[in-house]
Amino acid sequence: MISLLLLVGLAVAVFVGFNIGGSSTGVAFGPAVGSGVISKLGAATMMATFALLGGWTVGRNVVETMGGQIVPSELFTLGASVGVLFFVGLALLVSNLFGVPASTSMTAVGAIAGLGVAAGDINWGVMGGIVSWWLVAPIVAFWVCAVIGRYLYPYLDAWFRIDQSEGPLLEYNRVASIPIPTAGANTTRRELVSSILVVIIACYMAFSAGASNVANAVAPLVGSGAVEMNQGIFLAAGAIALGAFTIARRTLDTVGNDLTDLPILAALIVEVVSASLITFLSYLGIPASLAVSATMCIIGLGWGRATRSTTVKDAAAAAVRGEQGEKSGEESKMSVGALAAEPEDEVAKIGEEDPKQLQGKDLFDPAATGRVIMLWILTPSISAVASFLLFEFFPIYQ
Questions:
Q1: Bridge partners (DSSP) listed for residue 175
Q2: Taking phi first (over 0 means left), then psi (-120 to 50 degrees means alpha), and beta for anything else, what does residue 167 get?
Q3: Which of 55, 118, 362, 364 has the smallest C-beta neighbourhood within 10 Å, fewest atoms?
Q4: pTM
Q5: Domain ranges of the chain
Q6: pLDDT in tens, 21-80
Q7: In contact, 4 and 133? CB cutoff 8 Å
Q8: How confident is the model over 169-219, as pLDDT tens digits?
Q9: DSSP code string of 257-298
């Protein structure tokens, strides 16, 4: 007979996965749905499929890390598992209230660390490796996208720009009652290839989300032995799918004004870089934040794009003189407008672009970015302290 406590734990796990599905679907498939390449129903179906695939293949490495390598699995009694999952759910609430993409992975690790410190049994070597990657991953995300923004983005925009034609992208012809998709009457080959690429990248993002997030929903339950590994992955993937088919419909509508307030090409670059980084870390068994990496990718891409108005030589000369000319002053405004600038037939060289074309609505707001980074640090810290106090005074891990 299933105990009431286990039912509570399963309910909290489903709640966590449900919210992850709602938010991750918008991030992964927002560009594809916004550009009319696929429908919301198609996005939800692909999200459910590839999140399960990511969790089933790479995600189990993260489950093993969080379910038994940070602290011994013996500490994950059913009561302790529910306590840890409670803090993950609390992180989602904080994220929604403040409108900041707080990391459930970082919060979950913080809660597990609090349990380990309270019990006097934590693997500081594993924790040190995880925290080190938390510091390195956002820096790598920023600089990779900064380099792309400065040196490659205008050329990618010229080569792969998606110009949508009138009419449907695809038409369906029936052959023996089987619908066969074909390109629409006005669809160009470039548009078709680009649209297919948009969907492939979105599926890759969904795979990455599943790989990194299934552990957030079920790792404590798997560590406690209350749920087997495969059962836990199916439970988390099912909850993510539920969120994808329900609340994700709203996030798909609003994501264009949030994370992807960018041209579709910029959004796809952010997805590829952040998904690749998180998939790599998930393969290593490192629980890391997809939202944090994606946000740093956006900042890096905008910053790199805006710096094209000056050369490294000119910037160094100005720094030596202690001056900031009109061009470098204008260049300091990193913006969505910089990424949304109309492409030209011939890409201007670095130092030759008009700084006025790289301005617009600020993408890099120091105050807002400082608030985001503060909450990235504060959320897992609060989770760790609160978890420690809970398990210190109520040792339900024994």
A1: 178
A2: left
A3: 362
A4: 0.82
A5: 4-391
A6: 887 888 788 878 876 778 889 999 999 999 999 999 999 999 999 999 999 999 999 899
A7: no
A8: 666 677 767 777 777 666 777 777 778 888 899 999 999 999 999 999 999
A9: GTTT-S-HHHHHHHHHHHHHHHHHHHHTT----HHHHHHHHH
